[in-house]
Structures are given as C-alpha cells and as structure tokens.
Amino acid sequence: MGVALARAAQWTAAGSGTGTLEITPLNESLLNQIIKFAEDFSTRHPQEAAFVFREPLEWQTQLDCSVFGEGYEINEATVQSEARDKDGQPLLLLTASTLRVRSFDQLSCLLQIAMEKKLKEAQTCLEANRDPIVKILGPEYGTVEGEDMSMLHLLDRMKKDDDPETEMKMKINLLLHQLDLQLLNSSLKHISQDIRLSPAAINNEVDLLKNFSGKGEDTVLESLEYTSDYIFSNGCRAPPWRQVHGEICYLAIKPHDTDPLYITCSTAGVFLNGVSNNKGFHGGQKSTRYCAQIGLGVFLEYEESKIYCIQDDQSYGTAQRVEELGRLELFCLEKKAAKKDTEEERRSSTVSLKIKKKTRGVSSESVKIRPASKWYGKSSGRFEEVSESSSETEEDEEQPIRHQEGNTDLPSEYWGIQKLAKYLKGGNPTATLIALCSMRDFNLSQETCQLAIRDTGCLEVLINLLDTEEIKCQIGSLKILKEISQNTLIRHAIADLGGLEIMVKILDSPDNDLKCLAAETIANVARFKRARRTVRQHRGIKRLVGLLECVSVGSTSLTPYQAKDTEVARCGALALWSCSKSAKNKAAIRKAGGIPLLARWLKSSEANILTPIVGTLQECASEPSYRLAIRTEGMIENLVKNLSSEHEELQMHCASAIFKCAEDKETRDLVRQYGGLQPLCVLLGNSENKQLLAAVTGAIWKCAISGENVSK
Question: Which ranges does the UniProt record give for the ARM repeats (predicted)?
Fold first, then answer.
C-alpha cells in the first residue's frame, strides 16, 4: 500500500504543511478499494484482524461520540472500545477530535459506523499516515523512496526464527502487498485513459496534411512521409525499444522554402528533432509560405527582418482543422481577387510596443505586431496562446482596441498628467511619492487619464517602482495600477512590460497591504489568456492559494489583525477567480491544495469574500475532479444556503455552480436533501436580473433530470 500511495496516488503540493490527497477520480477509486479491503478484512481474515498495530493509526476525525454504540464506552467527549490489548489499552480511542485505531478489526467497525463519511475518513487517515505499513508492522517494513523492502526483510526474519508473531506479520504483509498490486493495476487503467495522442490520431492528422501537400501553389508542404513503412500490431511505426518511451512514429517533412524537418510523434505530443526547448511542430516551423497558407495568426517582425510565427493551438482537433482549412481556401481566393491593403492601412494597423527586456546586456527592442487578416477575427488570440482552455469566454480572447488620438481637443487632465510625468521619472523618493499622490487625485477611472499615463511613459515607471525597496512607493504605484488596469489597453501593456512577474513576487511580501494590492491588480490584469499563463508559469497560483491560509472562518468578532488576514484572503480569491478561466490554472489550483481552503472559506458569512470564492468554484466546476470535490467536501450545503443570500451576484454564482455540479446524480440528490429546490424556484420570480434568472433556470433544469426532484 505504501508503494501505491507514493507512486500512484495524486498529492497536492506541500505548501506550508504536508501535502494532501487531491480529490480526483483516480484517488477516489484508490480510496474506495482501500475502504473495501479494510471493511471486509475482519470477515475474511479474523485472526489477522485481531493483530495489534505497532503504533496506532492517528488522525483528526469528523465523527462525534454519538455515532458509536454497542461495544464502546462513552464518557463525555471520550470514546474507548471495549476490546483491549494484553496490557489493557483500548484498541480504539477517541479524544476530542483525535482518533487512534490499533487493529484491523476496529478499523473495519469504524468504517461501517462512518457510513457516508467513510471516504473522507479514509482520506484524512492516509494523509496523516503517509506510510501506514510502518504504523501497522514497524519501521523496518516501511517504503523508502517508493520502493517496498518489506518482503526482503520478512524473508530474512523467517530464516532466523519461527516466532508466531513474525508469521502473523508475514501474512498481513502479504495481504497488504496484494492490495498494493491491485491499487497499482487500477491506477494504470486510469492513467492510460489520459494519454493524449494515439497512433490512430496521428495517422488521421498525417493523412489530412497529405491532402494539402504537393507541388501546387496552394499547398502548404512539398512532401510529408513516414520514415518507416513497417507498422506494428499496435499501430506504431517506432521500434519497440523507443515505444517504451512513448514514441509512435517519425516524419520527414519538406516545406517549400526551408530545409527538411524531422518530427517525432509520441503520446506526449509532436516534437521537432534537434531543437532544444521546442514547443511542437508548428512552434519550430519557420517556413513563411507554410505560415501564410495555414494561417497561424500573429507574426512578430523584428528589425532584423526575421519572421517567426506563433505556435498553433494544440487543442484543435481534426474536424476543426478541416473547417478552418476550408475557410482558409475561401479567404485566399477572396484575397487574390481584391487586394485592398494600401500603405496607409498597413501603417495604421501596425502598432509599436516597447517591450521591456531584463536580459543582461540587451537593450529594449521595438517589436512590431502585425495582426493576421481581419478574417481571423477573435481566433488570432487562440493562436497566440498555447495549450490553454478551449472553453474560455469571449473576454478571455479580448484584443486591445487601438485608439488613434491626436493632440487636439484633449481635456486638461491629460496635460496635467503629462506635467506630473517628469517629476515621477526624475525625482528622489520623496518627490516620486508626492507625484504618485498627486496622480491619484485625478479621476483614474476615466479613459483619458488612463491613456495619458500610458502615453507619457508613466506606466513603465510605475512598474519599475514595484521592483524597488520603497514600500510607500510600491503601495502608491499599485494603487494607481489597480485603478487603471480596468482598461483593456493598460492590461495588455502591463503584461508586455513584465508587470505581472513583479506583482507575483510581491505576493511573498510580509506587508499585507502590498499583498492585497498586488492580488487585486493581478485579478484585473489576468482577464486574458497570456496574462493567466504568465501568472501560472511564475508560480503565482501557488502563492495566491497561500493567501487563503489565514484566520479561522466563522468567528463572529474579528481582531484587526484577523480582519486584515480576511481581506488578504478576499484579494487572493479575486485573483484566483480571474485565473481560473484557464484549464491549466484550474489544475494548478487543485494541486496547490486550493480545494480544502475554498471549502473552508465557503462557510464564511461575509458576502464580500463569498462572492469571489463561489465565483472561483463555479468557474472550476466545469472540471469533473472539482465537481467530485465540491460534493465530497460538503460544499453543496453551503451553496444551497447562500441561495437565500441578500446579494444577487452571490446567488447567481451559487446557482451557476449548482448548474454545473448537478451533472452528477449524487449532487442532485444533495441539493434536494439540503432544501435547495425551494429557493431556486423562489428566485425564478426575479425577472429583472437576467443573469441570475439564466443561472437559476439552468440549475433547475439540471436538477429536474432526477425524477424525485421533479415531484418535489
């Protein structure tokens, strides 16, 4: 069992404490098998079930004294089993919330008593006892770095003596070893379902590309061939000794205008040979004709006239590619028929951005971004970002709207900020702080003021101030950035200038005001995919989850220190809410241990923190692992409770979360058991708030799948 827990089970990042078991389908399957093994142990192996553990399995239980009945002695908050060892010590002892179990017999009885809480109890027990065999049989039977050495130890002991206890330990160890193999087998079945590429899928992709290869002008490639014609029985063309590493086949590709390329196709993806840190086939392809024909989206044009094309979206399937290629052919015909791009239009569509580079010895470069043709619409954003969620909203694909502003008819605020710019750029810390305070006196919610800060070069200065050691200047800068980052153009500019990376570092600051402002600004900026990816790649998700680890929830009166901690958690939840629109970020939140913390804050009575918490949960509820966690962590009860809140936005997010979670029958039953159907029906009467009405209607629709809910 130790090997399965170490290798197969999925654990969260340790964070500030020990890691916890993620709520995933794989872990649920492993836990259910362990529970069945323990429940049946006393019936199938009565002698071994009476064996007293070397040390008790100890964990914090959710069970109270009232669930224990015959066979147990109850004295106020203490429960002892009548069954005792040879020294008269109870084999089960519950003191307050600490539970100690010392035999399989008592473990079996406990799981039967726990009923619907048995899954949570098993999870907590294994989290507190990462290698339970050590507690059961002794440290010499432990698992070291995922390797089980207990069998070798047993054989050694059996040679030396014929002790009955050693024979009993051998039997128990063999039973646990058998369970270990069963768990590992089960985990392999689950893992095999997650393989992204198969020989059949690659075959289909190659056949599709071959249709667009040849000598013609409209073809994307000159040739595309497998390096081997021999196909093994499993569909792979790679030799067996490479198949064990996941490799499927190899391709030789000849573009029209570059040297041949050699590709390795594996279960993990498609890779260009001979390129370090490459990002796949399209990421390494530099053929300008290929890029023009296949329509990969945005091009970056450096002053040295080198052209690189951004990687194609890996989430595209065959059907989508066929559709896009069909549309591309139509687009090419229209483009040949009418060339309307004049020199003035190209000049107006070219935007120069100053990219701040922190590479040693390299000055900032002017990078011109030329958007792909208007035919691509919002899809160009999809090609810019690699491997993000395909289910993100239109706001995630937002493209900055460039304003052509002249120097006439600008309000006085614009010129006022322009005058402040020189003091902000060239002053000492005191002058800089005064300039920051003066800038805050302007109405920063006005677009004119926001763009004035960008146009005068103040935005670069504000971001540079974040990298100083002057806390007051950092706070002043973040207060301004938090306000102006409501603007789409400013959000993109902050990301381009490296502001997100610095703000993620600030999340480690001991100053709570700084952490709050940084998290709120991240929440504003991370509304498009590239920004969310930057936060994740710089370990921002783990830091944001860490902001939720604060005071105990549910306190009626908070000290000023606890109130500030609660505000930090609220700001962290806001940032997680924005970041959770990405599938990879949802997985990162789960791995960082965010689910138990979100469940904990869901019990709060403060609407200002409940709204981002529920918003994050309903965003993540599109993933099966989150739906399972919301059900098993007891969150449905709190979601139902908050349907009766006075805040309509909170009601809307609760209804939306129920709508997504009610895919599962167990969740639909829980909504009915906790009385959630009545408040949902009451909210149907609110016809003015269309968003709330849509969420409530969806929740009722999903709940109505169950016949019991319909009659209710």
Answer: 498-540
SS (H, E, C) 83-119: CECCCCCECEEEECCEEEEEEHHHHHHHHHHHHHHHH
Identify the pLDDT of residue 159. Answer: 55
Residue 45 and residue 172: Cα distance in Å, rounded?
A: 9
Scan for tokens 């050590």, then name that residue: 134
| Residues linked to residue 58 through DSSP beta bridges, in sequence order | 100
Question: Which residue intervals of 498-593 are DSSP H helices?
Answer: 499-506, 512-525, 529-537, 540-546, 560-579, 583-591
Helix, strand, or coil here: 265? strand
* Residue 552: φ, ψ to 5°: -70, 135
Structure-block tokens of residue 701: 């629709």
pLDDT in tens, 441-481: 888 888 888 888 988 888 999 999 998 888 888 999 999 99
Q: Which two tokens stand for residue 340?
A: 């309307």
Number of H helices, E strands in the chain: 36, 15
Which residue do the tokens 């098998």 mark?
33
* Among 697, 621, 602, residue whose Cα is nearest residue 663: 621
Residue 287, token pair as written in the block? 């053929």
Residue 191 CB coordination number (10 Å)? 11
**Amino acid 394: pLDDT:** 38
Q: Are 254 and 240 in contact (CB under 8 A)?
A: no
Residue environment code for 404-437, b if the CB has 16+ CB neighbours within 10 A, otherwise e: eeeeeeeeeebeebbebbeebeeeeeeebbebbe
Q: 483-503 burial, b for 16+ CB within 10 Å, e for fewer?
A: bbbebebbbbbbbbbbbbbbb
With contact defined as beta carbons under 8 Å apart, do 507 and 569 qualify? no
Write out the H or E segment, with its range, that includes residue 286. Answer: none
CB 331 within 8 A of CB 375: yes
Question: Burial level of 439, CB count in 10 A (0-12/13-18/19+)?
Answer: buried
Q: Is 232 helix (H, G, I), strand (E, B) or coil?
A: coil
- Chain mean position to CA 432: 39
| 569 torsion bin: left (phi>0), alpha (psi -120 to 50), beta (else) | alpha
Longest Cα–Cα distance of the chain, Å, equals 99
298 with 380: CB under 8 angstroms?
Answer: yes
CA angle 585–586–590, rounded 5-degree value? 110
Quote the tokens at residue 178: 């058998």
Which residues of the chain register pLDDT less than 70? 1-9, 12-19, 143-162, 189-196, 275-409, 426-427, 550-558
pLDDT digits (tens, 9 = 90+) for 27-60: 888 889 999 999 999 899 999 999 999 999 999 9
Q: Are 525 and 561 in contact (CB under 8 A)?
A: no
> Which of 285, 51, 336 is closest to 168 using CA atoms?
51
Q: pTM of the full predicted structure?
A: 0.54
**Which residues, at least 6 apart from 276, have a Cβ–Cβ distance to it below 8 Å?**
none
